[in-house]
Design brief:
With 473 residues, the protein is an alpha+beta fold. It has 16 helices and 25 strands. The strands form 7 sheets. A 7-stranded antiparallel β-sheet has the order 3-2-4-1-10-9-11. A 6-stranded antiparallel β-sheet has the order 5-6-7-8-12-13, covered by helices on one side. β20, α13 and β21 form a beta-alpha-beta unit. The protein is elongated. It binds iron/sulfur cluster.
Length: 473
C-alpha cells in the first residue's frame, strides 16, 4: 500500500474504474470520458488518465491524483477526438507510480493502441517472463502492459482476434477497454469477476465499469458485457465475439456489498436494493431488541434501512461523515489510523444518549474501525451497542484486483464470533451468513465469494497472493 494514504475506514480497497466512448460522428469524447471518470472516482483515487483518438493518432494525458486534479479545461481542450478511453486507478499490482497509471499506450503493428484495465491477471508474472524471453521490453510493472504485449504479438489476426487470443491466454479478472485509431474493444474475463457494461449516447457507444457512469453522461443502458465476451465498436457498429471455453458468471460479490455505487445496476442486480435485502435478511438471521438502528456511512446505510424495515425499529442517523476528508491526510500508522476515524466520523450525541443502538456495517476487515465506533457510541451515552454486519466474515485474501490485508490481520480469520467480538467490544456481534448473502443476491450461485470462503473461481499463481492459496472452483 502507498504509505501516504489512509485506508477507507477498514474496508477492502477498491480496484480501478474504466470508461470508453466511441463515436463515428464528431463528439468531444474526452469531455464525455472526463464526466464518466468522475462518476467512477470511488473505484480509484490514486491516478487518472484519458487517451483520445482523432482517427489518425492517439493522445494521452494522465497524472497522479483525483480526476479533478489531473484534468483542467485547458488539458481537455488539447485532447480532441471522437473516441476516448479513461481510467481511474488504485494500485493493487505494480508500484504506485505515474508510469503505472493508465491508459497505457504503445505503438504496435496494429497501429497505436491504448488500454484501460480493471482487475488482476494471476498468471501475469509467468507471461511476462515468457515475453521477456522473446525479447520484449517492459516499461512498467503493471499487468496491463502484459495484455498489451500479448495483443501486439498477435497483430496478424487483426485487433478483435488479437484481443481474443490474449483473453484466452490470461487468467484472472479483467474488464478491459482498448482504443485503436478507428475502433474500440471491450472485454470481460471468462468469469465476469469485474463488471463492464455498454451504453448508448446518441450515435456513440459507451463502455463503463458501472452503470452510474452512463447515468452521469446521459447515456442509455444497453446491456452488460457477458463473461468471456469481446465487444467491438467500429465504423460498422457494435458486434461481439465469444470463443472462450468454460465461461461462467462469477461476479465479485463485494461489488454489491461495498465497491459499487448504490445507484449502479450490475448484471441486472440493483446494488441499492440488494444492500437493503441483505439488511432484511440480517435481521432475520441476527435479531436483537433495540431502540434505534443506524448505518455506518455511507455503505452501511442501505443495509441498515433494510434491517430497520424488517425489524420495525426506527432508523436514526448516529454518525456523520466529514465529506471533505480526502485519503491522503496522514501517514497510516496504527495509532493515526484509529484517530482518522474521529476525523472522518462524528457521533450525533442526542440521537444515541440513553438508547440501545444496533449499528450496521456492510463489511468488517480488520475490526479496528468497528472497535473505535463502538467506543464512540458508548462515550456518547448509548446504553448498548450491537454490531451487525451485512456480509459474512472476510477471512481470506482476494487475488483478483482487491487489496486485502494479510490473512492474520483479517478479524474474520479468527473464525469464532465470540473471539471477534472480544476485539470489537460490542454487546453482541452478528454477521450475515453465506446463504443469506446469496439469497440477497438473488439466490443463484453466480458470484465469487473467495474472500469469505477461500474458494475462488480461478486458481491463483503461487507467489502473487499474500497468504495461503485457495481452491479452484
Ligand atoms: S475474493 Fe472477494 S473481493 Fe475478491 S473477487 Fe472474490 S468476492 Fe470479490
Amino acid at each position: 500500500m502507498n504509505n501516504n494514504r489512509v485506508p477507507e475506514l477498514d474496508k477492502l480497497e477498491e480496484e480501478c474504474g474504466v470508461f470508453g466512448c466511441f463515436s463515428n460522428s464528431p463528439i468531444d469524447a474526452s469531455v464525455v470520458t472526463y464526466y464518466g471518470l468522475y462518476s467512477l472516482q470511488h473505484r480509484g483515487q490514486e491516478s487518472a488518465g484519458i487517451a483520445v483518438s482523432n482517427g489518425e493518432r492517439i493522445m494521452v494525458h494522465k497524472g497522479m491524483g483525483l480526476v479533478s486534479e489531473v484534468f483542467s479545461k485547458e488539458k481537455l481542450d488539447v485532447l480532441k477526438g471522437s473516441s476516448a478511453i479513461g481510467h481511474v486507478r488504485y494500485s493493487t499490482t505494480g508500484d504506485s507510480d505515474i508510469k503505472n497509471s493508465q491508459p497505457l499506450d504503445a505503438e504496435t503493428k496494429l497501429g497505436p493502441l491504448s488500454i484501460s484495465h480493471n482487475g488482476n491477471i494471476v498468471n501475469a508474472d509467468v507471461l511476462r517472463d515468457l515475453l521477456e524471453d522473446t525479447g520484449r521490453l517492459f516499461q512498467t510493472s503493471s499487468d496491463s502492459e502484459v495484455i498489451l504485449n500479448l495483443i501486439a504479438r498477435a497483430y496478424k489476426k487483426g485487433l478483435p482476434e488479437a484481443v481474443s487470443d490474449a483473453a484466452n491466454t490470461i487468467q484472472g479478472s479483467y474488464a478491459i477497454i482498448i482504443l485503436s485509431k478507428d475502433s474500440m474493444v471491450g472485454a470481460r474475463d471468462r468469469n465476469g469477476i469485474r463488471p463492464l457494461c455498454i451504453g448508448r449516447l446518441g450515435d456513440a457507444w459507451v463502455f463503463a465499469s458501472e452503470s452510474c457512469a452512463l447515468d452521469t453522461i446521459g447515456a442509455e443502458f444497453v446491456r452488460d458485457v457477458k463473461p468471456g465476451e469481446i465487444v467491438i465498436a467500429d465504423k460498422d457498429g457494435l458486434r461481439s465475439i465469444n470463443n472462450m471455453e468454460r465461461t461462467s458468471c462469477q461476479t465479485c460479490s463485494f461489488e454489491y456489498i461495498y465497491f459499487a455505487r448504490p445507484d449502479s445496476v450490475i448484471d441486472e442486480i440493483d446494488v441499492y436494493e440488494m444492500r437493503c435485502r441483505s439488511g432484511e435478511r440480517l435481521y432475520e438471521e441476527c435479531p436483537v431488541e433495540a431502540d434505534i438502528i443506524s448505518g455506518v456511512p455511507n455503505s452501511g446505510i442501505p443495509a441498515a434501512v433494510g434491517y430497520s424495515k424488517k425489524s420495525g425499529i426506527p432508523y436514526e442517523m448516529t454518525l456523520i461523515k466529514n465529506k471533505y476528508v480526502g485519503r491522503t491526510f496522514i501517514t497510516p500508522s496504527q495509532e493515526l489510523r484509529e484517530k482518522a476515524v474521529n476525523v472522518k466520523l462524528n457521533v450525533m450525541k442526542n440521537s444515541v444518549k440513553g438508547k440501545r443502538v444496533v449499528l450496521i456495517d456492510d463489511s468488517v476487515v480488520r475490526g479496528t474501525t468497528s472497535r473505535k465506533l463502538v467506543e464512540m457510541l458508548r462515550a456518547a451515552g448509548a446504553t448498548e451497542v450491537h454490531l451487525r454486519v451485512a456480509s459474512p466474515p472476510v477471512a481470506y485474501p482476494c487475488y483478483f484486483g482487491i487489496d486485502t490485508p494479510y490473512r492474520n490481520e483479517l478479524i474474520g480469520s479468527e473464525g469464532d464470533i465470540e473471539a471477534m467480538n472480544k476485539t470489537i467490544g460490542a454487546d453482541s456481534l452478528g454477521y450475515l451468513s453465506r446463504e443469506g448473502l446469496l439469497a440477497s443476491l438473488g439466490g443463484e450461485e453466480n458470484f465469487c465469494m473467495g474472500c469469505f470462503t477461500g474458494v475462488y473461481p480461478v486458481a491463483a499463481q503461487i507467489g502473487r497472493g499474500k497468504d495461503v492459496m485457495g481452491e479452484q472452483k
